[in-house]
Structures are given as C-alpha cells and as structure tokens.
Amino acid sequence: MNELSNSLAAADIAHQIHPYTNARAHEEKGPMIITKGDGIRVYDNTGKDYIEGMAGLWSVAVGFSEERLAKAAYDQMLQLPYYHTFAHKSHEPSIRLAEKLAEMTPDHLTKCFFTNSGSEANDTIVKMVWFLNNALGRPEKKKFIARHKGYHGITIASGSLTGLGGNHRDFDLPAIPVTHLTTPHYWREGADGESEADFTARLLKEIEDTIIAEGPETIAAFIGEPVIGAGGVFVPPEGYWPGVQAICRKYDILLVADEVINGFGRLGTPFGSERYDIQPDIMTLSKQISSSYMPLAAIMVTDAVYDAIADNTAKLGTFGHGFTGSGHPVACAVGLENLKIIEEDDLMGNAARMEAPFQDGLRAFADHPLIGEIRGVGLIAGIEFADKATKANYAPAGSVAAKAAALCTEEGLIARNVYETLALCPPLIVTEEDIAEIMTRLGRALDRLTDWAKSEGII
Question: CA spacing 20 to 30 A to 151: which of 117, 283, 315, 359?
Fold first, then answer.
C-alpha cells in the first residue's frame, strides 16, 4: 500500500468503530478500503477489482456508478438541499415518492411514512402498532410474533424483533414483548420423515398455538420477511405464507411484510409479497428503494391502519414521532430516479430472467464435499456448509463459511458469511456473462476451501 493508504488504515483503526466487526481483530487486521465503484464491481486502494456479489448490503440494484442518481442528488442539492416534513411542511420530492410508492406497492397500501433506514422503519412500526391499539381501546394488544433467524434491524425495538442471538447478546434484547418461532427452513428444521406439507402444517400450528396460549387479545402483529435474508437466506415452504395470513386474519393480528431486502425486484417480482401471495397490512421498504445511494426507507400502510392512527392524532393533537431526515428531499429525489431506472431498464424483469442462470449456476456446486444445501430464489441465494448425510455444521461454528468468504474475497468476489451460510445477492443489473464470472471466481474459492478443510482435518 502507498503512504496515503497506510495513513487511512491507521486513522480508521484509531478512530472508527465498525458495525458487525470484532473490534480487537480489526485493530490487527485493518480495513479493506474501497475507493471506486463501476457497475457490479468495486475497487480497493490497491486497484484490485471485486465483483460485489452482495450488492453492498443486499441493496445496490443499479450498480455502483449510476450517473443519473448522482445528477438527481446534485440537482436537488442546488434546488432544496434539506427541508423537513414536520408540522404540515412538505416538498415535492417526498410527495412524488410517496405517490410513486403507493402506485408500485399492492393497491391496498395507500399511505407512506419515511425514515432513514429499515431499522428505523421497523422501530417506527412497533410504535405505530402500539399507538394504533391504544387508540382502539386495546392497550393489552402489544405483543409481536417473529421468527428465529429473521432480521428486522438493530434499534432497541427492531433489534428485539430480529431473531439472531448475535444481535441480542449483551444488548439486553429483546426489550419489547416478542416471541420468536421456528425458522421456516424445511431442510434444516424439518423432522426425519416429515414431508414439506407436514412441516408447513407444524409451523402453522405452532403459530396458532402460540397465539392461543398468549391470548389473541394480546398479540398485535406478526412480522416476517417473505424470504429471510440476512439470517441466512431461507425460502419459505409451500403453503406457509397463505397459512400465516389466514391465521392473522382469524385472530385480528396485523401482518407486517418486511420487504427491506426482498423489495423492488430482488425475487424477480416487484415485492416478495407478490411472489408469495401475501396481502400485508404494513410493508417495510428500504435498501433498493434508493440503491443505498442515499439513506432512505419507507413504511406503507392500509387505509384502516392510517385511519386509526389519524383519528388518534386528532384526539391528541399530534403524531409525536419522526426523524430530522424523514422524507429528506435529496434522498427522495435519488429514490425517485432510482425507481425510474429500475422500471425503464426493466431490472425487475432482468432479475426474473437471470434467476435460472444464477440459481442453476450455484446448484452446479451441490456435490461439493463441504456443502449441505444451496437455496434461493430470484437473485438471492445461500450456500450452507454442513455434512450432507447428517446436516451437522462444522466446528468451530461458522468457521467454514468465514473461510469461504475470505477466499472469495481473495478471488475477487465479495460474498458474506452469515453463521454457517455464504450469501450472494448481486446487483439487479447483473448479466449472464457477469453470472458466469461470479461462478468462476466462486469455483476457485470453493476449490481452495476444500484444500484448506483437508489441511485442517475438517474433511
């Protein structure tokens, strides 16, 4: 590295605390400093290129060099760089984006509230649901149902909804009333000899039994990602979501679809709710809403949810919640332009067309001696490392996935290790040629992983 790079690395170690990072290990290892993006590739400070196989953090639909988004931000900065949406104030970018989201999402979702991140959005949803039930004279209806390995954010409330131990330990979470139920992952959670249909029926019974045991009058909402993303990429079994929805309707429980990763084409449909025939009362949106060029998230709700909240604001005189950046004009302008690009370039259609080469390409590695399962839909997938015969993961926990991610990086492919799984989620602009190169780089990394595992006595 040159003198500037060494200086930057030293400053990073000296002053920055990194999310999802072992701070002491970072002091020894130092940062990978990314300096440039171009299409599906990013470049580090040595000039090495990497295919960004995770679209950043599951989020960059249009790639890393879209000049239209830079221009949208610049033009809006010149026109109105900031204004808020508190106390009857508004501006055109937030109005137009709210209108666009009402047009794009399922017809019954009509009202929009903006935040800066998916975590803030799900945190807001908890407060909205509590506010709503207090307004309706149901102060005891405050509990949430979520799933193990589901991911909904990292604030106190959204981190409580998240079903991952690493997000709870020593943070004193969960800190709100939430029950986490079985991950809808048939390969891992299905019992010996249990069919997929029977597995679905068992999970649905678990949900209903939990509601009855807790008391339906105490359960406010069920929250779930149509396809679980950051917990390990888990595709729901057949019949799962229609069953969940029927149970929620039966017991007057709000259904929240967390579309932060799934939304805007990731699964080859506009939203995961459409792929799995879900009609949520509330929908969480972020990430690909702006391709993460600007921090932006949104909550979409039905008229019924809005009316209960609106009536209570009339009673109380205000809705005492919001963020300085709620509906930020630059973020909304970038979001609007990003959604135009997704539509004009048919990136949702591209995700649908690229599903087969991407998923089939990954499944060509199914016989790899360290791989237990390969799963995914659209342009999102997970490779779980486990013994094929026993489904047992390797020891130490997470070591094989972590090594696989490190080797992918060395081979010029950025993937993400999530517990025992290597996740991939490329930008929606990916082509068949790009996918072929992803598979080439992944293949080299997996070959090296086999050699490493043999040398470590793992296989």
Answer: 359
Q: Which of 333, 335, 342, 341 is nearest to 75 (CA)?
A: 333
pLDDT of 1 reads 55
259 vs 110: CA distance, rounded Å:
16
Residue whose pair of structure tokens reads 């015969």 in the numeric block: 389
Extract the tokens encoding 214.
Answer: 């807790």
Q: Nearest CA to 281 among 299, 266, 263?
A: 299
Q: Would you state the pLDDT for residue 297?
A: 99
CA distance 93 to 103: 15
Q: What is the pTM of this model?
A: 0.97
pLDDT at 341: 98
> Which residue intervals of 21-91 are DSSP H helices?
23-29, 55-58, 67-79
DSSP state of 415: -
Element (H, E) at 10: helix 3-15
Q: Can you give the pLDDT at residue 2?
A: 78
Taking a C-beta distance cutoff of 8 angstroms, is the pair 326, 121 a contact?
A: no
Residues of the chain with pLDDT under 70: 1
| Number of C-beta neighbours around residue 76 at 10 A | 24
CA–CA gap between residue 173 and residue 61 (Å, rounded):
32
Question: What is the C-alpha to C-alpha distance for residues 358 and 376, in angstroms, rounded to an integer?
Answer: 10
| Per-residue b or e along 358-376, where b marks 16 or more CB atoms closer than 10 Å to that residue's CB | bbebbeeeeebebbbbbbb
Q: Which residues contact 181 (CB under 8 A, 6 or more apart)?
A: 145, 146, 147, 148, 203, 206, 207, 210
Q: How many CA atoms lie within 13 A of 30 on its CB side?
A: 12
- Residue 108 has which token pair? 């019954």
Helix-helix angle 432-455:347-363, to 10 degrees: 30
In this prediction, residue 172 carries a pLDDT of 98
Q: What is the pLDDT of residue 3?
A: 81
Residue with tokens 């009333």: 177
Q: Which two tokens stand for residue 50?
A: 């990497």
* Segment holding 447, helix H or strand E: helix 432-455
| pLDDT for res 4 | 72
- The reported pLDDT for the residue numbered 39 is 98
Average pLDDT, whole number, for the chain? 97
